[in-house]
User: Fold these one by one.
Assistant:
Number 1:
Amino acid sequence: MQQEYANAIDIYGIMLTNNPTDAQTYRARGFAFQLSGKYQSALSDYTSALDLAPDAATAWACVAMRQTILREGKKPQVGDAELAGLFERAGFESLLAGDFENARRGFQSCENRYPQYHSVNEVLHLIQNPRIDWADPEQRRQIFQAIVSNYSYHLPPGLLDRLKAAAQDSKPTSLK
């Protein structure tokens, strides 16, 4: 089985040589690395995929890999701050996808891991307001506006741009 993973990793590597901006291939190779127990390499590929094509599923895959690395006693390159950043990113990606529960989970996990991380406490408090009707596009837009205006410190530019777009757009998104 390990040989099959190694072959897949090699094939994905060739594909990435020909198309180094293919997020799907990075995710696939990351999964092959994960199955072969090469967690640092898996995390690196999942992070590359997230940078190229941000989405909540890839953000949560990055979180899972970092947790696996920590759980297995591997020496993390950065540690708690990096994991907190991955949780924060997963929270924002989930929020943008309309998945309020996973957004809350991501921000709460970030705060638990690193309580003073960026403005995560304020964002968590904001989205947990029981008066928010997440089905109301205007309320969602106002939440995104508040995040962009008050709590966007140190967010990656691409993510910040998507939050700004959500703050301007009052169309419904799929809510879970």
Number 2:
Amino acid sequence: MPRVKVAPKQEAVKLQSLLPNAVEEIRKGGVGEELKEYCRTRVHIVTIGVDMGKSLWACCLNDPDKVKKSIRRFRRKGKEQAFYKWVKGLRHRHPDTVFHVVYEAGRNGYTPARELRRQGVYVHLIPVNKLKVVEYGKKVKTDRIDAEFLSALDVLSSDLPRVHIPEISLECDKGLLREYHRIEKDIRTKNHQILSLIERWPVSETAPNKHLHHDVWRDCVAEWRKMGDVQIPESELFRIELLLDRMKADEAAKIKLQGRIDERDEEHRQAAAAKGEPYLVDILESLKGIGITTARAFAWEVGDFARFAPGKFGAWLGLVPVAHESCGMRKQLGISKAGNKELRRRAVGLVWLWKTWQPDSALMKKWGSRLEKGGRIRRIAAVAMARELMEAIRDLIVDNKPIEGAIKFSERSK
């Protein structure tokens, strides 16, 4: 359908009333076909696909009024600022045009998206691994082809997968949590390595068989050294001491990082109180079975729960089954495993905590009998309950809808 020409001032007024937050609403699926059709037929939309490499940014400008696509390349040092300046110039020369920039999620993170949004450009951060690309024969891959592919995507489609662009403070908080979990994993790994070393020698019969603090391990090494090489060779003790040196640094970093996380937690709590809003971590932690670690993980990793439409939060976590249909036969495959792996693991783990601390909740009455069984039935029930529990938590936070039968810490004495 050809686009209907409207006077620039009338167009600007119409856009001002229809387009604020339109991209976010389209992503949620909450925008009606009337707005989509208006955007497609009456608004001049230009899509810029950007393939961002280390030394080259290849850009493809897709203007529906022109048959040929325009290709632009920005190279080496200063390519980012040159690209931002180019986009700013486009908006200045074409004030009645709505620009959409599409680029792949990857090495450049959210910085380009934030800078472009400050210029008034709609930005779509795309997880390319979720796009279905049909290939025939040998595929030729170049930066130009990738940029053209991105520019040809339908930016008004609610089916187009997008990556949420968080606030800077939330992104930094997620980085703190992930670094904390990485250090914890490194400490566990070093404990495993020490245990595997001492298992090869006679000292293993009296040695600890669990994870310990580095100071306790050093006391053990001192005792083993007194026994001589009969129990454990000196070279092996030297290797253990090297592991303990790194473990000591990790444990010190963990304590320092925990202090910083607690500080940020208190800052968020005070900011929420200043706005007269409940703090998200406190809402989650008020439920029996959800501790501070899990509450922070969901609050800081997810951020804005309101960006998920009802029934979509479980799908974002990858807890929904994948449908498979062929020749009229249809079946459900395993879960999609999309989204954040750590949050999905915590969601399934929360099922067993819920089983212990919320036995009278509606979810446990529905799934409890199947969780008592073993094998495949138990695994399927755990994932299905995790999906429903995540949706219930989303409804609690966004719609203030209580979880049926769930007990809060303040209600235990009633």
Number 3:
Amino acid sequence: MGRAAAGTATVSRIRSRLCRGRDVVDGVSIELSMPTTNSSPSPFARRVVAVVRDIPAGRVATYGDVAAVCGSPRAARGVGAVLSGAINEDVPWWRVVNRSGALTIPAHLGLRALQRARLEDEAVRFDDRGRVDLELHGWTAPSDEVD
């Protein structure tokens, strides 16, 4: 089986498991909730979560776009750090991609395939290299949202 066919098979398996309400991908349990801590999120983290919640279904933003809307245009990695702790249904983390439209979430836990499956469920299309067309699916924050 070629690499593309294997990826498609994995996405199909994940999609069918999601439809059955499972949170296990390839035998690995995925925690889909925000970790509980005794400290409250930073103001930056709260802004990131608010901005990502505003990205509509069928659209994506880049980590840098989210950072810029949050008032910290050089904090793309910080956005990634915030979202890595927000893998849950309440925060649509799957709608954030890198600046070239690639999915960069760690693949070893099946999260990259999960991200692709969720985006495909929202009618986001991928090119032959597995990248989202940012011209077609890119999201621009409303001007009143930009800090």
Number 4:
Amino acid sequence: MSTDFTFALSKLAKRASQTPDFFGSLLSAFQQQEDLTTNELAKFLGMRAQLLPRLALCRRPRSDSSDFAKEIREIARFTETNPDMLLTILRRVEALEALAAHNKIVPMDVTEARTAWEGQPGFLVAARDREPTRRSRNRKKSPPSKGK
């Protein structure tokens, strides 16, 4: 590839990363989310970094499409990428997009997450490990009851 062509392709890929209809937006979101360099992103995908612009310019497949799996495979083949990794990126970014759309924020740490989701109907908070209290340490386990 000529230097001019590579430069133009990279420029188009950068523009695609700002448009939700292109895979570039997924790559950009995932790269920020995971704090990855371009080379680390390529390694995660199992591809050559030079092919990232090609991937960025692919149309983002619609998850609800009946051709979704076929489109993922075609994109993977075209970009010499692992289709499972493409799917992983797509699902992770979609999950964050759904959370952000629901609450208009994406919490960045545990304290913010707890505050943001408290009292929201339809959301459960996961239990955390904590030191046992004196009462729970002193509590004896009762033997299992025998059936009559």
